[in-house]
Amino acid sequence: MFKNLPLLQTAGFLAQHATASQKVISTNIANVDTPNYTPREVSKFTDEMIQTRHELTWGTTRTGHIQADHHADIFPVSHKLAWETKPNGNSVSLEGEILKSIDVERQHSKAITIYQHSVDLLKMSIGRGR
Questions:
Q1: Of 60, 65, 58, 75, which Cα lies nearest the Cα of 22?
Q2: Residue limits of the Flagellar basal body rod protein N-terminal domain (predicted)?
């Protein structure tokens, strides 16, 4: 029942976007010294992504199956333009990636807070309180 509420779906999708972004950022940080590595980034969260997400459905053949991580399939990942390239061809900025990681953590926290407060509001509306 709660899975069909647009606010909860959007909050969950925002959290998934943050997860996918964090995965790409951690890959960039892990390759900070890899020669000729070009950093990647997940595209910004948009309303179009929400529409695309609602059109996609991931299924399993049995109830006991765990769904795979499809975050990378949903969110477009692209190579980003480098501000500075090191002599070995690597263009990862460790400071920049850490700052992006902080922003992504805030995005994830915001999504979880929205989700939790929405669930609390629904519980209060049916008389169960927190």
A1: 75
A2: 20-38
